[in-house]
Amino acid sequence: MSRSNDKKWPIPESVHEIENYMKHRVGLGISFDFGVRKLTILKKDVHIYYVNGLCDTLFVIQLIEELVEINDHEKVSKDVVKIIENRLVNQSVARVKTLDEVVDQVLSGLVAVMVEGANTAFVIDVRSYPGRMPQEPDTEKVVRGSRDGFVENIILNTALTRRRIRDERLRFEMLKVGERSKTDVSLGYLEDVADPDLLNSIRKEIKAIKIDGIPMADKTIEEFIVKQGWNPYPLVRYTERADIAANHILEGHILIFVDTSPSVIIAPATFFHHLQHAEEFRESPASGTFVRWTRFLGVLASILLLPLWLLFVLEPSLLPEQLSFIGPNEQTNIPVIIQIFIADFGIEFLRLAAIHTPTPLSTAMGLIAAVLIGQIAVSVGLFVPEVILYVAISGIGTFTTPSYELSVANKMARLTLLILVALFHTPGFVIGTTLLFLFLVKIRALNTPYFWPFLPFEPKGFLQIIVRRAIPGSFLRPSIVRPRNRYRQPPNG
Q1: The whole model's pTM is what?
Q2: Tell me, what DSSP letter sits at residue 87?
């Protein structure tokens, strides 16, 4: 029988029919982790279904003890179901009416109590998912600040967020995605701030997802809701820091929490959202602005430095007399563009190797690659020293980008510009940078201009991007999220 028909099946009165259903459809007796505990309470058969590893064993034992004690303190009564319900000592007990819902809840880590003669089941939330404790994310470290980051447990992640926003209007709306995985997905937002049109759009897109499962968690959700295609630039922002997530909720953004993922999706997001980092807001406004400008410079260097240097190498006449020293001073048998690509891809090889190398060995591998391979490559004439210098600066600029997805997209843009410069020289550089700019301006993520507040230009928003203003002076929420309540605090408060 299909699953769509199962959802209409009421719970039968016989617990033995339920047991047969569990054996044939869910694997009771075959799957070692799916179990049942059979009891007799006031001459009524009671079955308790659970999944080992997803529920807290101590709580389950406590529930069983409470039920067994009913035989010692209660007389046989017609209200056995009511008596059992009152003895389920847990803060979260709900009645369900269909077998499919019972199965979904049990496979999510809840415990189901089935009573002979009742057409209902009690599901008790005693979930205890395996996972690690909150710790600082590796990719979003700060010198000072909180060290609790998101983990793979959606319950812990929402709790870390609510701890920072104790507002009765904070909502965590739960959905399920995946016909087989039934993964928990939660929308986090402030009810009186978030844009209802955006919220409805995201909710509709998530409910429309038809897929067996989402083992890649939030990345799969992103691909369904933003329909990115072959565009390499990230259209939503990810974070593993609870303080960053809470700050964006207060601004009016909508967060998407996905169970089994330690990162959350922030929507909507612009290009400049990917250039922000928590460290800027842990410094004074002047220091934070300096750090921000330094990061902007590093991002520009990661995109434009190598193509611009290659252009000067190919057309030395463009250089003023004072900068005539730029460019290789010796002839090599390998064209400069080939040297750049070899060195650039060499850095990419090292990055990938470092990801797959155990931590104690990755540092040694990096030193060997940087010192020995680089020096030997220059000595044998494979590279000119300047190629190593500028490729290294561009690589460092790539690592200054807070968003890993944005850094990869910028690297792809840099390689494209290098090819255009090698083929067409000055026209290639001018046309390539212009097309890149127009491409970024044209992008719209969840109906949000990607290059806001630069285009369309908004002076106040642009000033917030250029200068890290003090928090007391930032009393307006960004207009790009279309908040229902524009003021974060009274203008004179």
Answers
A1: 0.86
A2: H
